[in-house]
Specification:
four-stranded mixed beta sheet; 40% helix; 348 residues; single chain; binds 5-S-methyl-1-O-phosphono-5-thio-D-ribulose
Amino acid sequence: MDEGTKIMQPLWWLGHSLKVIDQTRLPGEETYLELHDLASVIAAIKQLRIRGAPTIGVAAAYGIVLGAREISSHSREEFQKGLDQIGQAMTGARPTAKNLFGAVDRMLQVKCNASEPAQIYKLLEEEATKIHAEEITATERLSRYGADLIGEGATILTHCNAGPLATTGYGTALGIIFAAQKQGKKVKVLACETRPLLQGARLTTWELRRGGVPVTLITDSMAGYFLHAGIVSCVLVGADRITANGDTANKIGTYSLAVLARENGVPFYVAAPTTTIDHSLSDGGAINIEQRAPEEVTHCQGIAIAPPGTPALNPAFDVTPHRYVSALITEKGVIREPDTDRLRALNI
Ligand code: MRU
């Protein structure tokens, strides 16, 4: 934890294991888990104990280091085969966050540059540490760029959780809010609760309150009321995957916010490191949207809120077409009204 800012990091590499804060237990309990093997890292990602696209990517990289230690063969060929299987298992954890796939690809590239399993293992650890450090630096940079878009006295509406817990480092959407506050601007936040798993109510309010940013919680369905009332200066969210044209997958409910923002003349900003951008997909129609268990909708914190047997649907993300995005804020700069050419021009 950073004592000065009270920013809580989501994970720590201990050299032989990965220590994580269990994000499903917040804000009630600060519980830490020590993960010693690949299977427990994958399970923690699936169960959202580790969550948020950049944090998932960093955890996946360390998970591969732990998995590599479990490969018993010392032949280079067998070791490489084992690593490919580990990569495949890791990408099966969650389908939408680009950072997971990017981190796994980077980790699997490492094996091509080494001849001995012991050497590969050392290089894997170095690469995971590098991925982690790069994500921290990216959040720091994009937070500074984004803060310049936030006016004195702004009321910022955010959805889900795009703070340090979701990203490592400073956060994307919340990093920008912390940076604006550091610039001396008196900002305040309206946080959508984010049904069904309440990342906004549980995590965003927790992080902002620790950081001394005034935050008010609203239910997701109140957002239109406040946007129409003219009290919201901008909507600012993170992203899980951004396609080559700027279409953005983020937590379910984000698309509705973008349309409401446009209807009410409020800027809609997306903040993400470039590791979230997927150049292999031309537009958001091709993004694989995670479908989670119906019980997450029929139950709230373990309590049934619908008659037994009620069918429920649970897409975890939606896609906001790029025409609704006023600006994309990355560590390489701000792209206003992003499209394929503007993303290409920034060389990201
Ligand atoms: O399902 P989650 O909690 O992993 O989803 C995370 C999000 O969708 C967040 O909105 C976030 O902005 C993306 S990560 C910074």
